[in-house]
Structure formats: structure tokens, C-alpha cells
Amino acid sequence: MADTSQEQHRNSVERFIALANTIKDEGVPIDVVSAGLMTASGVYATFMVGGNDGGLTASGVDKVAAKYKEELEHIQEVKKAQNAQQSED
Fold first, then answer.
1. For range 56-67, the mean pLDDT
2. Distance from CA of residue 21 to its chain's centroid?
């Protein structure tokens, strides 16, 4: 089991990607797999904030959407850095 929050995060991401790839390999189109992951993540984010019976207010939706945007921007920065490093090698 991972010891730190960062290790737990990385492990969770790897497991979700592995599951998504398994679903894709079963013949589900990648856009459907991606949409399913996004929907599941949204449902879970709503549960995290509001519990089983709660929902997000408009400002809550904006906050969650901002976190998704922040994460996507971070992913793109990492990918660009990896590509630059590979170009140097």
C-alpha cells in the first residue's frame, strides 16, 4: 500500500487507467470509456462534497470544474516537459 498521499494518488491514477484500458480492450470505443470515466469522477466528486443525498450548488459545480481544469493544465505541462526531454535525448 502506498505511504504518502502522492503515492496513493499515482497508484489510483494507474489503476483507473488500467481499468479503462481493459474496458477499451473489450471493444468499448475510447470516447465512450473516457466519457464513462468523466461521469464516474463527477458522481464521486459530488458524493465527496455532498454525501449520498447531497448535490452541488452552482458555485460547487464551478469549484469542481475549476479543479478539473487545473488538473488538465498540470497534465499538459507534464506532457510538454516529457516531450521536450525526449527531444533532447
1. 89
2. 14
